[in-house]
Amino acid sequence: MSLRFCGIELAHPIINASGTFDAIAARRAFGDELLEHFPFAAFVSKTVTVKPRQGNPPPRLWELPGGMMNSIGLPNKGLAGYVEHDLPELARLPVPLIVNVMGFSRDEVGELVRAFAEHDEVAALELNVSCPNVETGLIMGADPRETAALLEHVRGLTSKPLIVKLTPNASDPAAVARAAESAGADAVSLINTLRGMALDPRSGEPWLGGVSGGVSGPAVRAVALAQVHAVSAAVDIAVVGMGGVGSGADARDLMLAGADLVAVGTESFRDPTAGSRVAAELSELFSEPAGDVRRDS
Amino acid sequence: MSLRFCGIELAHPIINASGTFDAIAARRAFGDELLEHFPFAAFVSKTVTVKPRQGNPPPRLWELPGGMMNSIGLPNKGLAGYVEHDLPELARLPVPLIVNVMGFSRDEVGELVRAFAEHDEVAALELNVSCPNVETGLIMGADPRETAALLEHVRGLTSKPLIVKLTPNASDPAAVARAAESAGADAVSLINTLRGMALDPRSGEPWLGGVSGGVSGPAVRAVALAQVHAVSAAVDIAVVGMGGVGSGADARDLMLAGADLVAVGTESFRDPTAGSRVAAELSELFSEPAGDVRRDS
Amino acid sequence: MSSDRVQAPFGRRAAAVVDRAEYGPYVVLAVTDEEGPEPEAGQFYMLTAAERWGGGEGERPFLPRAFSVLRAIDGELQFLFHDVGPGTRRLCELQPGEELLIVGPLGIPFAPPREGRRLLLVGGGVGIAPLAILQDQHLAETVLLGFRDAEHAEAAALLTHARVATDDGSAGHGGVVIDLLAQELHLDAHREVYACGPPAMLEAVRQLCAEYEVPAQLALESGMACGFGACFGCVVHTRDGLIRLCVDGPVLDAGRLESVIGVGATAGAGRLTRPPIGRAWMASGGQA
Amino acid sequence: MSSDRVQAPFGRRAAAVVDRAEYGPYVVLAVTDEEGPEPEAGQFYMLTAAERWGGGEGERPFLPRAFSVLRAIDGELQFLFHDVGPGTRRLCELQPGEELLIVGPLGIPFAPPREGRRLLLVGGGVGIAPLAILQDQHLAETVLLGFRDAEHAEAAALLTHARVATDDGSAGHGGVVIDLLAQELHLDAHREVYACGPPAMLEAVRQLCAEYEVPAQLALESGMACGFGACFGCVVHTRDGLIRLCVDGPVLDAGRLESVIGVGATAGAGRLTRPPIGRAWMASGGQA
Ligand SMILES: Cc1cc2nc3c(=O)[nH]c(=O)nc-3n(C[C@H](O)[C@H](O)[C@H](O)COP(=O)(O)OP(=O)(O)OC[C@H]3O[C@@H](n4cnc5c(N)ncnc54)[C@H](O)[C@@H]3O)c2cc1C
Ligand SMILES: Cc1cc2nc3c(=O)[nH]c(=O)nc-3n(C[C@H](O)[C@H](O)[C@H](O)COP(=O)(O)OP(=O)(O)OC[C@H]3O[C@@H](n4cnc5c(N)ncnc54)[C@H](O)[C@@H]3O)c2cc1C
Ligand SMILES: Cc1cc2nc3c(=O)[nH]c(=O)nc-3n(C[C@H](O)[C@H](O)[C@H](O)COP(=O)(O)O)c2cc1C
Ligand SMILES: Cc1cc2nc3c(=O)[nH]c(=O)nc-3n(C[C@H](O)[C@H](O)[C@H](O)COP(=O)(O)O)c2cc1C
Ligand code: FES
Ligand code: FES
Prior knowledge:
Largest sheet of chain C: 7 strands, antiparallel
Strand order of the largest sheet of chain A: 3-14-13-10-9-8-7-4
Oligomer: heterotetramer
Bound molecules: flavin-adenine dinucleotide, flavin mononucleotide, FE2/S2 (inorganic) cluster
């Protein structure tokens, strides 16, 4: 059996978290085996911006107890480069393609949405709203009014499903999700990384080239579960849960808390086929007698 | 040498985090040795509310990779019970006493502040603003306007130093800190616990009696460092940094990021004299040649 | 200040493992503790392995774990472990020469029997631990111990002249230890019962003792983070409301409890507010 | 799709440790890898110990670590480790019978020499690892290795007829390996240099080779989370901007670099915005 998410047919509920799997680079490393055993039910590409970006200066990685912190800084080829070089390759993947986009103003997001609206190979768009709107100074996804205004601005530009990727660094993610829903979002996804920082033990200066970074992995799992729970209870649209998923049990917890799909991020760094493994473990868990999963259901 | 914090003389910069050390219970467990080797330079008591509270139903604890989650729910004897039973005992501690208070409306906070204003044995008050104002529905410490309004309401009621304990579950803790500063706070302390959740692996229902809980310990250290850094850069008042401190190196990192004092919380559960150890390790680190601590200072 | 307990030295101290023995699936570690006072029966310690237990590299186990003292002789402490998770597993694998970090003794011990009553000890599984030191410190002729099977019952050797019951009848009485308790109380009810074991056993003890109007002291368990009253995490339900088991227990008079079942957990307290939308895949049984 | 490298099987596979040897402070592990293809010199693997490495209990080390393949013979891979932190420490303590989880071979290998040039291998410390397999796969008569002292220099036995330099003169030439390189290039510059070692050594190699107009291939390091291009974390500065070392390296032509120093770190990129208020206690030197 398969499952429908925003009208898209998926083989199972496990997809990748944006920015944690580069299918093009992975094909260089692993060859065609990648396509034969593609680990995710849909492929979410790394954030695309209007202009090309180099990303943050290195170092970009720091390891934490049970997790990691990154200050990658959204390097990408920019809209034109992505459409020319990456899109044709990604269109050949054996699964639906979701493109993650970010703009620094409502118009920029609009430009990105409009550009991808005409590409049949794009099944849905994910809007990364974890950045400031340069016009208002507010993080687009940390304030419900900002989020609603953004969605109203771009909703009319495409009939493709729009997934709003929520930031956990917000006072009330459920309110933001509600605002996104009212303004026409088809789904929300969460959590993005938690803002953190680490100092170089030798110099006492920030370790990361970007000064602060984003925490991911098992260290954020409890926070992700709480936010997915709060958001799912607040909205009727679909929810993609993520944050620290490393096993089928972690994915099941997010689904019990209300997620429809689950994304695997950091765990793919440890285990490139983590997506397939989590999907298999999840399927195993749900084929056990229901009583083992929930006391009463 | 000693140090001054909001006009209070302290022997060193390490205090306890509210709710993580009960000096009265510890005296029952450890006897007078507790007083002879009191581990903190000031004692911060657990949150006091106007009315007595039982707290949340058990279970209240969940262990995480590198940390824990609690849903204690602020059990306390209430203002009258605290003043009658606890205050006289705490006044006999060998260090200054900081009382942490929380109200569910501005008037309740006012009542608490006014009550402690007359007690000479209280050196300062810490305002726990991680709860909703029942009148506005907003978390008092998650919205700068709420925080400012609260401070304006209570600032005139006491000349004692007021420390605002910030919540990390906020879109912009630095903006909240700035609001607290403008409205007359003498210091801010952060971070309180991060909201999280865990499911019982057997039943699939929430493990904690309070459904969601607060994450603390090393798992939140990177988040604490980022927020202390952002807040210290935004205000001129004193900053008490906390979150996952387990060693002198962790305390030093928070101080390099801008903290004046550092509080030890969860680590005291693992090691009851963690406060003394952290203070000793910190002192050791700062007596090394400066070049070892910072590349250039 | 006079005290209702032997107090602990303030702080965490190292204690070297000097002996390790296995009793069926259980492990007994002996550690040296010259510095600490002699504990009383029913008291407990918070234990951490000195290596590979949280700290700098932050793995789980992270918090210390609570263990009743099994025996205390000449500056040596003994503990009994049952591997039920990462903490007990780590402790079970320790070898002589390795170290524990310990805080204790903690908590209120067993009280002497009232009105010249004779002691009657009832233990189940790893819950026999506090009864061994109790038997060392007080005359206790009647000891009733329940185990799953003969292999687990090997631990009965830790007490003297114990009568054993096993669930599967592979050693001693075939049935629950409560059967033996009923026999004893039927013969002579001028007893005070001291019990430690799984909640279902303790609840049966509580009910039977109430029936016979025999006082009972129950050593309970709950999840603990600190063991010295700092975290308010270990509360249990009593007739007087929630109390911290680490400083106001772990030994409680049976009369203070409504029931032992769910004493440290509240039925239905944490419930998922069912998310509003159907979860198609879960509902389908999750075939991929 | 034709490829510029030997590609890895997709996924993480178990590899049993079959041998462990020490060379001074370095450890060599041999693991079986029947499934994997034969790697090329300069490629690397992402390694994780199967036990006590992140996962369910989430300790650090959490991410896999990158290691050059030292040698590959008949379905067996060898790696060389230097204990510099929790990950390498864990790998160094593994014993035959335990398991690694491996992903690889990864990355672009060394290329054959240009224009009939003779290979000249220059290694420093643990950076000798990729040179051993290079010497197995290509004729390389000149091998120059630098170490801290004679004890570290024991690892020179991993290559054949290596000339050694030690910082303290306790073995071979007293001084840096660059002294030996200068001698060799002075004698014959129709060489192609293959180098791996600490950044200061590689930078000296780069400068010297530039001076002699000798092509050099440098195997670099940077912090890696994934090893297969997924995280964008391992970037290094090149003349063409930032590139991912795991998929576009780790071997780079020296000509592509401005400097090896700071290639994976940006001087002053992360600076504390000095907090505005005086920190009295820190300023005082922190006496308690
Ligand atoms: C006063 C006292 C005395 C005791 N004496 C003894 C003794 O003498 N011998 C002995 O063997 N035991 C004793 N115990 C019990 C012992 O403390 C526990 O078995 C131990 O803490 C379990 O730790 P663990 O890491 O092995 O297992 P855990 O993983 O902590 O699991 C134990 C139980 O905790 C729950 N759990 C699972 N995951 C988590 C999590 N992440 N966070 C929180 N809870 C979780 C589950 O219900 C699980 O069954 C005593 C307890 C108390 C309070
Ligand atoms: C392609 C390649 C090939 C390599 N080949 C070899 C080889 O053959 N043999 C070998 O021994 N090594 C090799 N290395 C280096 C090896 O990968 C590192 O030494 C290893 O990753 C260190 O891990 P660790 O846990 O032992 O130390 P870490 O604690 O990770 O410390 C190593 C360095 O990382 C930094 N650091 C400290 N704490 C953290 C933290 N929390 N998060 C992030 N960084 C931190 C510090 O600069 C520290 O000096 C290679 C590296 C690469 C990229
Ligand atoms: C190295 C790295 C890069 C990431 N890049 C992006 C990105 O480009 N766009 C985005 O929306 N999220 C990005 N994320 C966030 C992840 O998609 C995900 O929300 C987060 O990591 C939590 O999931 P995890 O704990 O499973 O990794 C990135 C995360 C990591 C670790
Ligand atoms: C068990 C527990 C109880 C707490 N109770 C309170 C409280 O009553 N009032 C308060 O302001 N903070 C309370 N906190 C938060 C701590 O003071 C502190 O902000 C937080 O735990 C982060 O520090 P740590 O990681 O060092 O524990 C509590 C934390 C824990 C773990
Ligand atoms: S275990 Fe912390 S208060 Fe009892
Ligand atoms: S290590 Fe992840 S992209 Fe290179």
